[in-house]
Design goal:
The structure holds three protein chains of three kinds.
Chain A (H helix, E strand, L loop, with lengths): L9 E8 L5 E8 L6 H12 L18 E4 L2 E4 L5 H4 L4 E5 L6 E3 L2 E2 L2 H9 L22 H9 L7 H5 L1 H5 L6 H11 L7 H9 L12 H5 L6 H17 L6
Parallel strand pairs in A: 1-5
Antiparallel strand pairs in A: 1-2, 3-4, 3-5, 6-7
Chain B lengths: L2 H30 L4 H8 L3 H29 L4 H27 L2
Chain C lengths: L2 H4 L4 H28 L5 H10 L3 H29 L6 H24 L1
The chains are: A alpha+beta, B mainly alpha, C mainly alpha.
Chain lengths: ~250, ~110, ~120
């Protein structure tokens, strides 16, 4: 693990190197004012070890690509100030949890997106271009519910934070189920019967234990636990009315 | 955990809320009045009321606890979902049998 | 503390863990409870003999723990039923803490009565 630096202007960071059976390796990085964790990773790759693999894009907290495990918590590294997390001068950075590691700090996001599809987190149109445009009022209960959960940018932080994902390989995860909930509330969508069946199966919304780690870690301040709670109700109700099989 | 198991577990949980409250109340009552086994059995023997109350309680808890155990086994033990389900069903059966025996023991005249 | 546990200390995560552990403990205890009651089949004497054993302090403490587990599991269950059936409340952390406190209080009352 990392040692504590004697120098005030130096950080000692542990970065995960390798795949699943890799290890943490230590690097010394100059400490600067207003430094983010992404700055630290970038410094290592540019000046110390060009073989380090990591992902980023916008650098300004809009795309979610730079999500990593920082001292055990999944976060956006471009929006994490070193001063906030490296209190004793120690920093441990690893790839997002619950996903296969490609190399170093880059994970394979495919299982995350595959589960998104499995949860039917996909809009199914009910009209064609020949029909009139649907008029959606923004203040209906359904639209308000959808809007509260709609700003998800699929960064994977909630998925990495979720212990039910960790313990249950079938569990679709907070992001996929949160999106399914927004679509359930979309008046224009025609795929709800199929969607409720998809989230009512093993590994669906009913597997959620309401730990609320997703809500705690979401950088967009979304609340997947609330969406999933409502989805549980919708699916159970549909099941009791014989609309879905189990 | 799917919707079917979920509905059964939540329903039995809700059913047991008043049952547990009464049960804990009874325990406190029995302690307060220093009831002996003979006293308690004197009240339960031949009682349709207690037979029904604890009969329902046993059935509900057998279902509820076995589903809970299924989840724990599936998530924390290195066994398949299917085997977790089988173990849970066995456990539920155990509770049902022992529970029915216990109810019979205290209500049969 | 491992890094895994260090970052899982939120009230609601702990509430879920307590709920699970209390449920597991109760489930393990239940067959023994049923077996003890089954002793009544052999007549009051057998059950009374068993109940006298329960006068021991260690047993009283164990019973107190059981009462606590039952109450905390039930209150935790009510928390879940509320989350899943009523509109979302942001006061859940306080409610979860209150539930644990109430369970502990009632269990303590039980202990006090059973010792006197």
């Amino acid at each position: 693990m990392s040692e504590i630096s004697e120098k005030q202007n130096e950080l000692i960071v542990s970065l995960w190197r390798g795949g699943k059976s890799g290890a943490y390796r230590t690097y010394r990085v100059p400490r600067r004012e207003n430094q983010t964790v992404l700055d630290v990773v970038t410094f290592v790759q540019r000046h110390l070890d060009p073989t380090l693999a990591y992902r980023f894009a916008c650098r300004v907290g809009m795309c979610g690509s730079c999500a990593m495990s920082v001292n055990g918590r999944p976060r956006w590294t471009c929006r994490t100030h070193v001063s906030k997390v490296a209190k004793s001068g120690q920093l441990q950075i690893g790839p997002l949890e619950n996903l296969p590691i490609i190399k170093d700090l880059a994970t394979d996001m495919r299982p995350f997106f595959e589960k998104w599809q499995q949860a039917q987190g996909v809009f199914k149109p009910s009209r064609t271009r020949q029909d009139a445009i649907a008029k959606i009022r923004p203040d209906t209960r359904a639209r308000t519910a959808a809007d509260a959960a709609i700003e998800c940018i699929n960064c994977g932080v909630c998925y990495a934070a979720c212990d039910t994902v960790r313990w249950n390989a079938d569990y679709l995860g907070p992001a996929a189920l949160n999106r399914a909930w927004t679509l359930t509330n979309d008046e224009r969508d025609a795929g709800n019967a199929e969607r409720l069946s998809a989230v009512a199966g093993s590994g669906g919304c009913h597997a959620c234990h309401s730990h609320q780690s997703c809500q705690e870690h979401c950088p967009q301040s979304l609340n997947p636990t609330a969406s999933i709670a409502a989805l549980k109700r919708a699916a159970a109700s549909a099941y009791l009315r014989g609309r879905i099989k189990s | 955990m799917n919707v079917r198991l979920y509905v059964w577990q939540r329903a039995t949980a809700a059913l047991m809320l008043p049952l547990v409250a009464v049960h804990v109340g009874l325990i406190f009552y029995a302690m307060d009045h220093g009831l002996t086994a003979a006293d308690i059995l004197g009240r339960t023997r031949g009682s349709l009321l207690w037979a029904s109350f604890y009969g329902v309680f046993v059935i509900a808890v057998s279902i509820h606890a076995s589903i809970g155990m299924r989840n724990i086994a599936a998530e924390w033990a290195p066994i398949s979902d299917r085997n977790a389900g089988r173990l849970a069903a066995l456990f539920g059966l155990l509770l049902l049998v022992l529970g029915a025996r216990a109810v019979a023991a205290v209500v049969l005249p | 503390m491992s890094i895994y546990l260090q970052h899982r200390t939120s009230t609601l995560w702990l509430a879920a863990l307590v709920h699970r552990i209390s449920g597991l403990s109760l489930a393990i205890f239940l067959p023994f409870h049923f077996l003890a009651l089954g002793l009544a089949i052999a007549g009051e004497a057998r059950l009374d003999g068993f109940l006298r054993w329960t006068d021991a302090l260690s047993v009283k403490l164990a019973e107190t723990v059981l009462v606590f587990l039952l109450l905390v599991h039930m209150l935790g269950g009510i928390r879940i039923l509320l989350i899943e059936n009523l509109a979302w409340s942001d006061r859940q952390k306080e409610l979860a803490g209150a539930a644990a406190a109430v369970s502990a209080l009632l269990a303590f009352i039980f202990l006090a009565r059973v010792l006197i």
